[in-house]
């Protein structure tokens, strides 16, 4: 820095710098100033921003608007990297004036180096409260140059402008004046490019190269080394800026007052008087009079001039101390001697020290002159004028903003400088639209993390100016995904991220956002999951994160219902239909293919469908971009599946299926499966990875259950037989069955002749028939275990005995000698279905079945049906003769001709499935010897022990008014056995508990002797619990039955605690509460129905009131001169309001009560059951097809038993409760938690195992 006084070219006058005619302008008249401003023809002020380098390895994208801007100097050609703080010169000038707002306010931090968006709201608030409190001035009549060139050479010019900032209001006293000092340093190149409006980027001090640091920053090194810091300036704020367009540099420094309020008190009258009295006390003979304030200030000014020239002051130190006070003199470097007196300052020894001292004296002098302007202007030295610092600064910057300069000259305040939006965008209202657009883009480029706030400001300015140009740009930015901060804040709020907590928010990265996104989805109520995706996309675009964008483009649609509706399918369609629908949509609407991809992926994940995942892997590999590649680390893939690498294929798939049913990421599991399948080269694994089905053709027979051929509409019988085969105690008993009986033995056995089954006696003929039926079961079960084929065929005798009533007598052939082998051919029977038959078997057979299992193959000696109209005509395979090995008991073969079998099958078609179940179990019971007899002679046997429970029905007299139990009332109760619990889908239960609650509900009944409360509880639970779902309803309007396909959701676990007979007071109280709640629900529902009942015109009470009011409010009456009483309309209004509130209250209360009923027993989980088997019917009431799902508790997999085809299926297929799905459960079977070993569906015993299929 050059020493003041060195010969430099004098600065030009302001009129020379800015030739604007302003002499006649009265600065106190705003209107004249505004007229002057309106005359100025402003031009485009800001060039397009420089495009930042794009890091190809970065996960962030550059702002999209940068692709359309004209080419400018590349970043590589600039001496500095562009920082994150961008400002226009207008913003810098206004910041200097208002820096003290922030420094002296609550923030206690300057704003020169801060992004405008970070303080715009606070500054605008302060300005609206205090107005433009501060002004920026230069004392331009001062003979010491405040505007000067520091250096000038062939490379460029360094210019210094010194100014002050002070409050606009005239100070009340000297001590109330605070004069802050501003130093501008402008470094310009001789060869700089023209720049109509500077684009200033802040540089950190450490970023400056040595040359610029030397020219622009004060170097305290030498001063500090000498241990003298008395003259070191105290910076309260500073910033260095760089304009990439013209390479100019601007350094701004703000210093505090040299004399603070405590110092300036010395010039108040009281202080002067006090010092004078002290002086007179020490010098009583002195003729000096009390100096006035003007004299004291002038004395300080004169002293500073001498010190500035490094001259020894001529005045007596005591006299100086009288006028100025000791504190002021110490600030002027006067030294206190040992005797307490003050000595004159020493002259600095080095040039560096002189430089700092002179700068300090210069600031002090300017400060004194500024004070003198207000309180001592009688002195000629204090008659100085304030100059226009902004114009001087703009001239040194070579920025000719005519509007800005003229507004300063005219002293017209631009109200936009008080606007938070204009402050945020570093703009003013006179800027052209294109300049505001470019400034917005420049700010987004420099500080992309605040793009949303810039966009808010831009939006508000666009609407305020009603500018089509700005509106067009606004629409463009919105199309690019730019959103405002208020909207962005709401997006972050969805993920519990506080954008106002800068310390926490600064740590939020892409990975954190992805975790927050998934967490929010997992714990949302599911009402609108797509809003989380939309919010995250806005965040990704705002952050410019390519990584987040890719993540969202490959993330499945969270709302699966939306996925189905987007593809215009339902969740009941097959996987192939999903693929077809996707391909149609993709071809018809290619612009939306990303959405269709995400919908398809969502459906695949929801269904956990291998078929769909295989399609994704084959045709949508881009959806796996962010997923790791398991093929690169097969050991990790095996660990993820939870399986060692050296196991066989079947064991591997068993491990995989166990994980597939867990909560692990299905996408990653599938990728691991595909990677391992590629290495194993196994047809079994490859087939499974494509279909999700373990193809029995590639399995050893021992690893899959045996199927049952359909001998003619026997699909539900096949399901029933597979179910009973899976019950290990029952299967064992059937296989070990060894019993024969004669009429004489039957009559002689008191237990057999006396026993009752199902409440009735069993005759010898029924017993004989039942024994033969069990033997038929025994043969079938044995074949299911030992057959070397993938399916076997039930005998015609078995089907006949299962379908025909047990009371129907059957003739048997002569007894066969013990151990004799007989050959019984399996004859094929073609069954036909009547048009009204309730059971029509739908052929789900696989076209790839082996020849011996093909349907419709010619069979020698086949018996044909007289009718051939069934949609599912099936024939018995041409099976080899079946060898029946007789044990030590004797068997008889039933004499059944084809017509009898045809009739039995027809009977089976017209039976309810439960009738077949009861018929089968009755015969099994009849063939078993009783373990004991109950008091009513009911037989106790294995069937009773496994499948039967007991209920207790109680009738409790209640008070007719309170409905409370009568203390002296006689309770009547009845114990009954049950084979299954019946739930009615017509009651529209929400889930299985809701259905059972209805079955076990407590209700009131009127009997002849009074009103009673009927309750039903379970006194004895079965080991295997069966629940029948009544789906067939009767349509009274059409006069025909129909099947309800309403879903009845259930879980794998079922808890029966709430339905048990108990003495537990807490449970009894809970039941009483439910009883009271349901009574209230019934009462409120009746009231609601009454209020919503319709009159003859089809209107409810509320609708009638609303129509009446609307009619009275219309102009019909006015046209006819009919007056309507305002009280009438008022009464209608009040009634409408009352009725609306009443209906709303009823709805809210009903919702609350129903929720209470649903959750009343949710904590009771001591008596648990696990799902065992699920019977499925697909079709309508009059036709359809049956199959069964059976869970294997050992391998924890579900198998689908669909006649001859047995396959493993996914959990999602089994638990498919989709609306519109015609494949619905109609019979559920659960097993007690501690008895899961009773379930053993995989039982094969092959003496010579063969690998692969037969």
From TrEMBL:
Enzyme class, spelled out: hydrolase
Q: Name one GO molecular function term.
A: K63-linked deubiquitinase activity
Going by the entry's taxonomy, the superkingdom of the source organism is recorded as Eukaryota
Q: What EC number(s) does its UniProt record assign? A: 3.4.19.12
The Gene Ontology biological process terms listed for this entry are: cellular response to hydrogen peroxide; positive regulation of mitochondrial fusion; proteasome-mediated ubiquitin-dependent protein catabolic process; protein deubiquitination; regulation of proteasomal protein catabolic process; ubiquitin recycling; ubiquitin-dependent protein catabolic process via the multivesicular body sorting pathway
Question: Does Hydrolase count among this protein's keywords?
Answer: yes
In this protein, which residues make up the domain named USP? 706-1233
- CDD domains for the chain: Peptidase_C19J (cd02666)
The record's Pfam families line, in alphabetical order, gives: RPT, UCH
Q: Which residue intervals make up region (Disordered)?
A: 840-893
InterPro entries linked to this entry: Papain-like_cys_pep_sf, Peptidase_C19_UCH, UBP14-like, UCH_repeat_domain, USP, USP_CS
Q: Which Gene3D superfamilies match?
A: Cysteine proteinases
The UniProt record lists the keyword Hydrolase = yes
The Polar residues compositionally biased stretches are: 875-884
Record's PANTHER family?
UBIQUITIN CARBOXYL-TERMINAL HYDROLASE, UBIQUITIN CARBOXYL-TERMINAL HYDROLASE 2-RELATED
Output this protein's name.
Ubiquitin carboxyl-terminal hydrolase 2
